[in-house]
Amino acid sequence: MGNLRIAILLRTTEGCFWTLPQVDELRRRNHEVIAILPPGPGALREQFRKRGVETLDSPFDFRFRPTLKAVRGLWRLRRLLCGLRLDVLNYHLYAAALAARIAAFRLPLRRVHMVAGPLYLESPVVRPVERLLWRLDDLIICCTQHISTMYQALGCPAERRPVAQYGVDLNHFDPARVRAPGPAASARASVRAELGIEDDVFVAIMVANIYTPKRIAFSGQNIKGHDVLLEAWRDFHAAHPRSRLLMVGVGFTEAGEAHRRHLMDRFADDRSIVWLGRLPDLRPYFLAADVNVTPSLSEGSNGVVREASAMGRPSIVSDAGGLPEAVNDSFAWIVPRGDAAALREALSIAHRAFTTGELAPRGRSAREHALRAFDRTAAAEAVADMVTHRHPRNRAADVPIP
């Protein structure tokens, strides 16, 4: 296809950084890219600004309520899309997908939905609705085969649900490029000295923001699995006292931060748990750790596992979503999601590998796998190919409605 006008519709100004390499690749191919975001400042908006990408405020606030304000917002979003005369509308996250499907209904443009996670498909309420609504997308780019399979179960044909996984900046996440932030000889030694952790102590790390328990799926549970890991860790540490757990992340919202505070209070008597909050650079902390733990109940491709692998760290992951697709048994252990006993056993196995020296070769295997599978440039190229390739459907019925 020739040069295209492409709008990316997002419901956040802070997250969705996986879109940036895709935008860079689309612009490298001389396509015009516009970002439609909620009003207000944010790290994502700043990244678009630095790239010279035009950003527009969404007139719809992505809150689906039976109110006149919501109807007016969707109508204004439709008018905005009409005025932009787009060739492609690319949307990420489910609220943006719903808004795009309504506002762009029957407009003469290509609709591309990129799915970052399967949580909404795991809802017994949303899933039957999505069985109908996916038909409003020309293409559903699934970040894992797991998501593509879920859409297959909803009747979506294979050519409409290709898989394109997110990549990692392998130059940035390279152990050889990380310098010690302090006077110590290595980043590992420097971080451990900062945290008061000796070199022969086994260290696990979990990197995930804390979300309040969802209602649409896994009701009442923390979907990133913090509670599961903390429960498993209590028994594991009792058996292996020379161990530490680094908990990296903050509450995603005020309610999420309140939930984080609740967890911190609940496990306040366990001095082996180090709560680190948000970190400007994860790389030295990956190097300070011996194993990454990702115990999610629901998950897409999960960039943390990929980054940990690139940093040469083996992982313990749950079998949720696309996590098993990001690892293999040469450097990772997969446990049933929500199973604290299985997670404790995996920690024990990793600890045994640590004491025998068998964990280091697993780390090297993780790095080698990342180099083969997680290149960000290749991933962005694959997405750009999908976004710009017109699906051979009959679009004669797509007539613009003012």
From TrEMBL:
The keyword Transferase applies. Pfam families: Glyco_trans_1_4, Glyco_transf_4. Residues 24-171 form the Glycosyltransferase subfamily 4-like N-terminal domain. Gene3D superfamilies: Glycogen Phosphorylase B (3.40.50.2000). One of its GO terms (molecular function) is glycosyltransferase activity. Keywords: Glycosyltransferase, Transferase. PANTHER family: D-INOSITOL 3-PHOSPHATE GLYCOSYLTRANSFERASE, GLYCOSYLTRANSFERASE. This is Glycosyltransferase family 4 protein. The lineage of its organism: Bacteria, Bacillati, Actinomycetota, Actinomycetes, Micromonosporales.
